[in-house]
Design brief:
It contains 30 helices and 15 strands. Helix 11 packs across helix 12. The chain is globular. Bound molecules: adenosine-5'-triphosphate. Adenosine-5'-triphosphate binds next to helix 11.
Length: about 800
C-alpha cells in the first residue's frame, strides 16, 4: 500500500534532468557551454533507422519481447540536444565544459563507443553473410537440384540482414527464453543476541504525527504552490518528522530509507526561513554539501523547483563544470549554494569576495559519506570557515550514530530523527540473490547477460566494482545488441552527464555504473538494479539498490553473490523486513551465454583496439594543443594576465595525507599490545584501500618499523643494561686474566663498597698517592683530581 506518492505522471516538475527554469544558475550556463559536444555520427542515424525498420517489420527480438508495441527509439538530440545544439550520441571530449577548445586538430570528431561497437558488429555481419554464401555455394555445387532453393535463401538473407545480426548476437536458441529461472524464498536466520538498542545521546524525534499534511506545517504560499506543482500530495514520513523540527532552527541528524524524499525534507524548512526572513544584502545563507557532481546537479534542480514561486536564489558549484561561470554566480551572493567540497574550497581560495561567514544553515546530504575519511580534510577546512552560529542538518539513508564521527561538525543539542534504521532498504524493494559457486566465478558475465537479455531488458542499472569492468560490460552487452551506456570516474563530466541523460530519456535501456552513481541519484522509472559483485559494505549495498523502488514505487534488485560475499548476504537477510529471494538460472542457459561471450571475445578486442587507436590520435592532438596553449599563455603572462589558481589539496597531496594518517595510526598501534589489537580491528572495519595503496602502505609500514628499530638501537643505553660484550673466541691455551684499567675498574665497579667509597671521596692514602703523582708531573692535585665533586 502506498501512503504517499505523486499526483500523477507527466505533471509539472517532471523535468529532473537538471534543466533549470530560471537564469542565473551556473549549471544552465555551463551545460550550455558544453553545447559543442561532438557532432552526431552517421552511424547512429543508421542504427536508429535499422531499429525502426526492425520494429516496423514486427520482427527482431526486442520488438517481439515488447509485444511489438515498443516505441521507436527516441529521436536523438531532443530535449537537451536542442538546448545544447549537439548530437547526444557524441561524447564531449574532456575539458569541454571548463575551457573553450582551440581551433585546430582537437575539433576532429571522435567516434563514440557505441559507434565503434556498431562498426565491429557490421563487419562481423558482412563476414558471416559471406561465410553463409560460401557455404551455400558449396552445397549448390554438390546438389544442382537445390539451385532454386539456394537463391531463395540468399534472397532471404539479403532482406533479413538485420535479423541475422540479431540472431548472431542475441539469441537464436528459443530454449533460452522458454526455460524459466527458479526463484525461492531465502530463510532468514534471526540473530540470537537481538538487535542492539541504538545509543541515545541526544533528543529523539523519530516519532512523528502521521496525520500531518503540508498545509499543517505553516509553510508559505509560494512553497505550497511549488509542492502542488511537483505533484506531492502528502508529506513522506521523513518530511513529517523533519520539517517541523527544521523550522525551529534545531540541529538535526536524520536517517530515512532511500527514495523517501529527504531532499525536500531539508530544503523546505530552509526555504521557509529564507522567505520569512528576507536578506538585507546579497549573501549566501545556506550551504548544501553533497559528495558527487551528479547529485549536486540533482539537488540544485529540486531546490530550484521548490523555490520557483519565491525570490530565493540558488547556485551550483560542483567539479567538472565551468569555474568562471560559477565564480560570477557566487559573486552575486545567491541565497542557497549547493556544492561539492573540492570545488567549494577551490572557490574559497580563489574567489576573494566569496566567503562562508554568513552561512546560517549548513546541510550535509549523504552525511555519513561527507564525514568519512575521504572528505575529512576538506570538511575540516569548510567547517572552520563557516559561521559558528549556524544550524546544521545531516541526512543519509545510512546515517552514522557514532558520536565521534559526528563531532567534527560540532552539532549543538542535535535532534535525532531516525525514521528507518541505517541498514533498511527501500520499503517496496524485492531483493534477489544469485549464488555463484566457488569454481563458477567465471559465470558472472554470462549470468548478467542472460538476466538482461531474457528477464530484465530495460530500465536497469548494473553496478560493477571497477571502471574497467563497467567498460567491458558496456562493450559486451552492446555487441549482444542491447542499448547500453556507462557512468564512472574515467569519463569526462560531459560524458557522465550525457550517459545519465540518455538513460533518463530512455535512449538506452541499461546503465552500467560504478559506485559513483550509487548515492542519491533519483532516476525515475528504474525497475531493476543488478549487482555484478556485492559492494564492499552493506552501506554501499543499501545505496546501490536504493536507485530503484523510489517514491513509493516497487523495484527489484538482483545481486550475484560469490563464496566470499556470503557473509554480507547473511547480514542482509538478517536485517531484511520482507523475505529475500534466491534466483537460480538454468545451467544450460548459463552455458549458452558463456559460449556466446567466448565467441564475442574477438569483437571485444577489436572495439578496444579501435578505442586505443583513437585515444592515441587524440593524445598527440592534445599535446599539440597544449603546446599551443602554453605559447599563448606565455604571451598572456608577459601581458600580466596569467594568474594561477591555488589548490587546497592536489590529488597527490590527498593520497599522501591518507597514507600519513594510516601510518600515524600504525605507529600508535606499535606502542602497546592493546592498541595494536584495536588498530587491527579498526583496520578490518575500515573501507578497503586499493591494492596499490595497500602495497604502498605495507612498504611504508615496514620502512617505519625498520626506522624505529634503528632508532632504538642508536639510543644511548644505561650501563647496567648494556649486554656483555661477547669475548672473541679465546685462543687455545691457559686463560689469561684481562687487564682492566683503573678507569674501567672505577667506573664499572658498582659494588656497594666501591660506591660508598666514591660518595665519601678519596681516602687519605689515595689522595697522598695521587698528589705525589701530580706534583711529579707539575700539576695541581685539587683542580685535576678525578675525584673532584661538583
Ligand atoms: N511528498 C512526496 N510525495 C511524493 N513524492 C515525493 C515526495 N517527496 C519526495 N518525493 C519524490 O521522491 C523521490 C525521491 O526523493 P529524494 O531524491 O529526495 O529521496 P532521498 O530520500 O533523498 O533518496 P536517497 O537516499 O537515495 O538520496 C523524488 O522523485 C521526489 O520527487
Amino acid at each position: 500500500m502506498r501512503r504517499w506518492g505523486r499526483a500523477g505522471p507527466g505533471e509539472a516538475g517532471a523535468d529532473r534532468a537538471g534543466t533549470p527554469r530560471r537564469g542565473g544558475c551556473s549549471f544552465a550556463v555551463t551545460t550550455g557551454a558544453a553545447a559543442g559536444a561532438g557532432p552526431q555520427a552517421a552511424g547512429l542515424g543508421r542504427r536508429a533507422l535499422q531499429r525502426r525498420f526492425r520494429l516496423r517489420r514486427g520482427g527482431g527480438r526486442r520488438g517481439r519481447r515488447l509485444g511489438g508495441g515498443a516505441a521507436p527509439a527516441p529521436r536523438q538530440g531532443e530535449a537537451w540536444g536542442r538546448e545544447r545544439g549537439a548530437g547526444p550520441g557524441a561524447a564531449a571530449p574532456a575539458g569541454l565544459l571548463t575551457a573553450p577548445l582551440p581551433s585546430s586538430p582537437a575539433q576532429r570528431p571522435a567516434t563514440t563507443l557505441d559507434e565503434k561497437i556498431e562498426k565491429v558488429r557490421q563487419k562481423r555481419k558482412v563476414q558471416e553473410r559471406e561465410a553463409k554464401q560460401a557455404k551455400a555455394r558449396d552445397e549448390d555445387a554438390e546438389n544442382e537440384d537445390n539451385k532454386t532453393k539456394r537463391e531463395e535463401s540468399e534472397d532471404f538473407s539479403r532482406n533479413e540482414e538485420e535479423e541475422d545480426v540479431e540472431s548472431q548476437y542475441s539469441l537464436d536458441d528459443e530454449t533460452i527464453f522458454t526455460k524459466a529461472d527458479t526463484v525461492k524464498v531465502k530463510e532468514r536466520k534471526r540473530s540470537k543476541k537481538g538487535e542492539k538498542e541504538a545509543e541515545r545521546f541526544f533528543e529523539d524525534a523519530s516519532q512523528y504525527d502521521d496525520n500531518l499534511s503540508f498545509q499543517d506545517m505553516n509553510l508559505s504560499r509560494p512553497l505550497l504552490k511549488a509542492i502542488t506543482a511537483l505533484g506531492f500530495k502528502q508529506p513522506t514520513p521523513i518530511q513529517k518528522a523533519c520539517i517541523p523540527v527544521g523550522l525551529l532552527g534545531k540541529d538535526i541528524c536524520a536517517c530515512a530509507a532511500t527514495g523517501t524524499g529527504k531532499t525536500a525534507a531539508f530544503i523546505l524548512p530552509v526555504l521557509e526561513r529564507l522567505i520569512y526572513k528576507p536578506r538585507q544584502a546579497p549573501i549566501t545563507r545556506v550551504l548544501v554539501l553533497v559528495p558527487t557532481r551528479e547529485l549536486g546537479i540533482q539537488v540544485h534542480s529540486v531546490t530550484k523547483q521548490l523555490a520557483q514561486f519565491s525570490s530565493v536564489t540558488t547556485c551550483l558549484a560542483v567539479g567538472g563544470l565551468d569555474v568562471k561561470t560559477q565564480e560570477a554566480a557566487l559573486r552575486s551572493g545567491p541565497d542557497i549554494l549547493i556544492a561539492t567540497p573540492g570545488r567549494l574550497i577551490d572557490h574559497l581560495h580563489n574567489c576573494p569576495s566569496f566567503h562562508l561567514s554568513s552561512v546560517e544553515v549548513l546541510i550535509l546530504d549523504e552525511a555519513d559519506r561527507m564525514l568519512d575519511e575521504y572528505f575529512e580534510e576538506q570538511m575540516k577546512e569548510i567547517i572552520r570557515l563557516c559561521s559558528h552560529h549556524r544550524q546544521t542538518m545531516l541526512f543519509s539513508a545510512t546515517m552514522t550514530e557514532e558520536v565521534k564521527d559526528l563531532a567534527s561538525v560540532s552539532l549543538k543539542n542535535p535532534v535525532r530523527i531516525f525514521v528507518n534504521s541505517n541498514t533498511d532498504v527501500a520499503p517496496f524493494l524485492r531483493q534477489e540473490f544469485i549464488r555463484i559457486r566457488p569454481n563458477r566465478e567465471g559465470d558472472r558475465e554470462a549470468i548478467v547477460s542472460a538476466l538482461l537479455t531474457r528477464t530484465f531488458p530495460d530500465h536497469v542499472m548494473l553496478f560493477t566494482q571497477t571502471k574497467k569492468q563497467a567498460h567491458r560490460m558496456h562493450i559486451l552487452l552492446g555487441l549482444m545488441g542491447l542499448r547500453v551506456g556507462e557512468l564512472h570516474g574515467n569519463l569526462s563530466q560531459a560524458q557522465r552527464l550525457e550517459a545519465l541523460r540518455r538513460f533518463k530519456d530512455e535512449q538506452i535501456d541499461i546503465l552500467v555504473a560504478t559506485d559513483v552513481a550509487a548515492r542519491g541519484l533519483d532516476i525515475e522509472g528504474v525497475k531493476t538494479v543488478i549487482n555484478f559483485t556485492m559492494p564492499n559494505t552493506i552501506k554501499h549495498y543499501v545505496h546501490r539498490v536504493g536507485r530503484t523502488a523510489r517514491a513509493g514505487r516497487a523495484g527489484r534488485s538482483v545481486s550475484l553473490v560469490g563464496e566470499e560475499e556470503r557473509k554480507m548476504l547473511k547480514d542482509i537477510v538478517k536485517t531484511a523486513k520482507t523475505p529475500v529471494k534466491a534466483r537460480i538460472l538454468p545451467q544450460d542457459v548459463i552455458l549458452k551465454f558463456r559460449e556466446k561471450i567466448e565467441n564475442l571475445e574477438k569483437d571485444v578486442y577489436a572495439v578496444l583496439c579501435l578505442e586505443r587507436e583513437e585515444r592515441e590520435m587524440q593524445q598527440s592532438e592534445a599535446q599539440i594543443n597544449k603546446a599551443k596553449k602554453q605559447l599563448e599563455a606565455g604571451k598572456q603572462e608577459s601581458a600580466g594576465e596569467g594568474l594561477e589558481r591555488s589548490w587546497f589539496q592536489t590529488r597527490e597531496e590527498r593520497k599522501k595525507e591518507k597514507m600519513a594518517k594510516a601510518l600515524q595510526e600504525f605507529d600508535l598501534a606499535l606502542r602497546g599490545k592493546k592498541k595494536r589489537k584495536k588498530f587491527m580491528k579498526d583496520q578490518q572495519k575500515k573501507v578497503q584501500m586499493t591494492p596499490e595503496e595497500r602495497s604502498q602502505f605495507e612498504i611504508l609500514k615496514s620502512q617505519m618499523y625498520a626506522e624505529r628499530l634503528a632508532k632504538r638501537n642508536r639510543r644511548a643505553k644505561r650501563a647496567r643494561a648494556l649486554p656483555e660484550e661477547e669475548p672473541a673466541a679465546a685462543p687455545a691455551g691457559p686463560k689469561r686474566k684481562k687487564k682492566v684499567s683503573v678507569f674501567d675498574e672505577e667506573l664499572t665497579n658498582t659494588s656497594r663498597k666501591a660506591l660508598k667509597q666514591y660518595r665519601a671521596g678519596p681516602s687519605f692514602e689515595d689522595r697522598k698517592r695521587l698528589g705525589m703523582a701530580q706534583r711529579r708531573k707539575g700539576g695541581n692535585f685539587k683542580s685535576k683530581s678525578r675525584y673532584k665533586r661538583k
